[in-house]
Amino acid sequence: MKRIAGAAVAILIYSAIVFYFGWSVATWLELYFPINNWLFGIVWGLITFGYIIGKVSHKLRIFSVIGSYWMVVMEYGILLFPLAAIFTWIFPTHLNLIGWIVTGAFLLIFIMGTYYAYTPVVRELAIVLPKNESKLKSIKVVVASDFHLGLLSNKAHLTRFVKKANAEKPDLVLLVGDLVDDDPIWFVQKGMSEVMKQLQSTYGIYGVLGNHEYYGKQIPLLVEEMEASNVHMLLDETILVADSFYLTGREDLTNKNRKQLFELAPEKKDLPWFVMDHTPSNLLVPEKEKVDFHVSGHTHLGQMWPNHLLTRRIFELDYGYRKKGSLHAIVSSGFGFWGPPIRLGSQSELWSVNIKLEDGEV
């Protein structure tokens, strides 16, 4: 009952905000041409509830796209529309100009955000790990997460990743969860597997599940498609790679029945241990279990400013690199995006990590 009441309150608050935004837009547009309130209300409602409508059927995917972009209006409209109202109250004869300023601000947000979303960069890092019994002297690892492959993080964007990843000539590629945007249907229908197959790596390409794979409830299909794309999915398992290092892929934190990290620890401690875990929930655990290299994603660095202030409070490490004892940890902001193809305060990325293996303790 509490959940129903909470959902009802949330819908009422959201509807009130949507109404206020719509009233503001209609008031400004009426300066230029007459508005049919009923028609405007219907169109406005379809836009503002588009993301939910798009979830009803894949045939309604246009509403998913519209709803995704609407998220940007909600994110920054909370600030811009009240500011516009204040300035209109102070300068009542300048409604026309104020409206254009707000429109220009949104246009700038969309232009800059689209650039940072679709123009990925390579973050470079060099670290040193104890070699012990490893046969390798060094290994280059490409790390990427949060592709959210689907309608907007599309085949063309995946192609950008493959080109940049292959240019690094990696020994190992780690894909750290949220590979698709809930449902892998668009990965299948748009033939993205053919692009993913072009990834090149000396010792293989490995992936884990993220929370969005669980939301989509199509994990068997996702795993099948990834395996067919030469991406070996590790679901709570540890493998030995090239007789030189151990690699563990954890189920996401969304799976309450996932194994504890100590259950996945290799029996022998004489080789470097790499771990993929989509959500960077607690670095104390991998540090305690003597993990050498730990990679995560999930946070998107908030994706759109100032959401990073929230992720910073939730996670010990919400982005970047940190050395904690003998543990080397990376949290990526992701190569793709959730919802709108907009990034502000973050940028689509992959990590290229040069790992040097040396004898003894490091």
Instruction: Summarize the helix and strand pattern as letters.
Output: HHHHHEEHEHHEHHEEEHEHEHEEE
Q: What is the CA–CA distance across the termini?
A: 56 Å
Low-confidence runs? none
Number of beta strands: 12
Principal-axis shape: elongated
Structural class: alpha/beta
| Helical percentage | 40-55%
Strand content: 15-25%
- Kindly report the spatial arrangement of strands forming the biggest sheet: 1-12-2-3-4-5
Task: State mean pLDDT (0 to 100 scale).
Answer: 94
Main sheet specs: 6 strands, mixed
Radius of gyration: 23 Å
Number of DSSP helical runs: 13
Descriptive terms for the model:
6-stranded mixed sheet; 362 residues; alpha/beta
Explained architecture:
This protein is an alpha/beta fold and 362 residues long. It contains 13 helices and 12 strands. Strands 1-12-2-3-4-5 form a 6-stranded mixed β-sheet, covered by helices on one side. A 6-stranded mixed β-sheet has the order 6-7-8-9-11-10, with no helix packed on it. Strand 7 (245-249), helix 11 and strand 8 (273-276) form a beta-alpha-beta unit. Helix 1 crosses helix 4 and helix 4 (61-90) packs across helix 5 (95-118). The radius of gyration is 23 Å and the shape is elongated. The termini are far apart. 39% of the residues are buried.
What is the compact description of this entry?
43% of the residues lie in helices and 18% in strands.
Topology:
Elements: H1 2-29, H2 37-48, H3 50-54, H4 61-90, H5 95-118, E1 121-130, E2 138-144, H6 155-167, E3 172-176, H7 185-189, H8 192-196, E4 205-208, H9 211-216, H10 219-228, E5 232-233, E6 237-241, E7 245-249, H11 261-264, E8 273-276, H12 284-288, E9 293-296, H13 308-314, E10 320-324, E11 327-331, E12 349-358
Parallel strand pairs: 1-12, 2-3, 3-4, 4-5, 7-8, 8-9, 9-11
Antiparallel strand pairs: 2-12, 6-7, 10-11
